[in-house]
Write a structure and sequence with these properties.
With 164 residues, the protein is of the alpha+beta class. The protein has helices at 35-40, 62-65, 81-87, 115-124, 131-136, 145-158, and strands at residues 2-7, 19-24, 52-57, 71-79, 92-102, 104-106, 126-128, 140-142. The chain is built from six helices and eight strands. The strands form three sheets. It has a four-stranded mixed β-sheet. It has a two-stranded antiparallel sheet with strand order 4-5. It has a two-stranded antiparallel sheet with strand order 6-8.
Length: 164
């Protein structure tokens, strides 16, 4: 069985539904990633922040799910800061910008098949699904370009010389 750590909220460059990591069954997750580890760390269950869910997938290997961790890059053009700093001139360079969100997302809202299962997933921080259930609910999706545009706009604020 493989376990996928999935982000439930947008934070620090990662978007809701981003697969963060894939581990084999029984792997130890961090205390902020797993409610079970949160409690073992000495925190109260009612204080669980619920920023992640662990999707347990029986019959799947870690290798078969590694494709979920593929990231995105975006090619942009910008002023070369080294040339600008040393000569005061401006030379445009092509730059590969690493986009922190994943190429694919897990549509975490469509994964639970009913409200009871959804409530349990949010309460416990985990859900168990077989691959056919994930595939039939179309839960693994390519990310749309809106996320890429959002990332570009955030970078543009820091460096107005960027163009696509």
């Amino acid at each position: 069985m493989a376990e996928i750590l999935v982000r439930l909220t947008d934070r620090m460059g990662h978007l809701k539904g981003d697969p963060v990591w894939v581990n084999p069954d029984g792997a130890e997750w961090g205390w902020r990633e797993s409610k079970e580890a949160w409690i073992a760390h000495g925190e109260r269950a009612v204080d669980w922040p619920g920023q992640f869910v662990i999707v347990k997938m029986p019959g799947e290997s870690v290798a078969s799910l590694k494709f979920l961790l593929e990231g995105e890059t975006m090619t942009v053009e910008r002023d070369d800061p080294a040339i600008k700093r040393t000569t005061g001139g401006s030379v445009r360079v092509t730059h590969e910008l690493d986009v922190r969100h994943r190429r694919r997302k897990l549509d975490i809202d469509s994964l639970p098949t009913n409200q009871t299962e959804r409530n349990a997933m949010l309460r416990d921080g985990e859900i168990t699904k077989i691959r056919t259930e994930v595939d039939t609910t179309l839960s693994i999706r390519e990310r749309d370009t809106a996320a890429e545009t959002d990332k570009f706009n955030r970078v543009l604020v820091r460096d107005p010389s960027i163009t696509r």
